[in-house]
Design goal:
11 helices, 10 strands, two-stranded antiparallel sheet
Length: 306
């Protein structure tokens, strides 16, 4: 690969941090026989967020969000353009999140799920950039405010199920507004990630030397105004005081175990657990883990909401 080709790829990656093609919201909970309500509510800064409320008979609520580039229904990464983007890392398979909501509902939980800003059907904001959690934290805070002010969910016990960008955003929300997390029973965080780490690995899989990650950093700063240092989730994790379970594919080809471990170690809560997924190097298997092996996550939520 020559310099011109590498430069074009770096420019294209940077551009995806601002105004990348939105993935579709595919289907509704009714497809799995679930009664649901279309909901809209403001993020902490007023950005309109779109989602679903899936009611149950109990008094416990799980609020779920999603990874970067996904929506509340997952990602059709078996189809282009997403297939081409993720094929080098072996992540060109479909990720449906609707079964996750069915599992939570069958376990007795009310569910609130939503699209993060600049994703799915939710509003555009901050110039369309993805900030690795800085601005998306306001969506997490908005979801908590909404749940606490609905007449039917206002007195419910709340647990959080946050994935990748959604997990980073949850850490950032705890850092930006600690009071918002008072009374939260627990957090399940799927595969939080440091942007510089995942971008370095992704470049390598594309045949671009890892040292070019600094060039990518500069390009992303020019596009979004936010470099990798500003998007470091470890300080945010240092504000997470609720009981937290993190789960992660240990041999994920896009990250390193040390990256996830550094966030886990930074959390001041003594009630925490790091669950490694073995036998795969495909990140997307981590997003399917709850469907394949929900018991560790359900046990965590159950125990802390008992």
């Amino acid at each position: 690969m020559d310099e011109e080709q590498m430069s074009k790829i770096l420019d294209a990656i940077a551009a995806n941090f601002r105004g990348s093609q939105r993935a579709p919201v595919i289907g509704t909970p009714a497809d799995l026989g679930l009664v649901y309500e279309d909901v809209t509510f403001p993020a902490g800064d007023g950005v309109p967020l779109e989602g679903w409320f899936i009611p149950n008979t109990g008094d416990k609520l799980v609020i779920a969000n999603h990874p970067m580039g996904f929506t509340r229904t997952g990602l059709p990464s078996h189809l282009d353009p997403w297939c081409s983007i993720w094929a080098p890392s072996g992540n060109n398979i479909e990720i449906p999140f609707m079964p996750d909501y069915k599992i939570l509902h069958d376990a007795g939980y009310n569910v609130l799920t939503y699209d993060l800003r600049n994703h799915g059907f939710s509003g555009s904001a901050n110039g369309g950039i993805t900030s690795s959690g800085i601005y998306e934290a306001r969506d997490v805070i908005g979801s908590l405010t909404y749940a606490r002010t609905r007449t039917d969910t206002g007195s419910m016990r709340i647990s959080l199920f946050s994935r990748c960008l959604g997990a980073n955003a949850t850490f950032a929300a705890a850092y930006q507004d600690p009071a918002a997390f008072e009374g939260i029973d627990s957090l399940v965080a799927a595969q939080p990630v440091t942007t510089k780490v995942i971008m370095t690995h992704q470049l390598g899989l594309m045949g671009i030397p890892a040292v070019r990650v600094d060039d990518l950093d500069r390009r992303i700063q020019l596009v979004t105004g936010l470099g990798f240092d500003a998007q470091d989730p470890v300080p945010w994790a240092g504000a997470v005081s609720v009981p937290t379970l993190i789960y992660q594919v240990r041999d994920d080809s896009l990250v390193t175990p040390h990256d996830v471990r550094s966030m886990y170690d930074a959390m001041p809560t003594k009630d925490k657990h790091l669950h490694w997924i073995e036998g795969s190097n495909r990140r997307w298997d981590g997003y399917l883990e709850f469907q394949r092996n929900p018991r560790p996550m359900l046990d965590w939520i159950d125990r802390h909401s008992a």
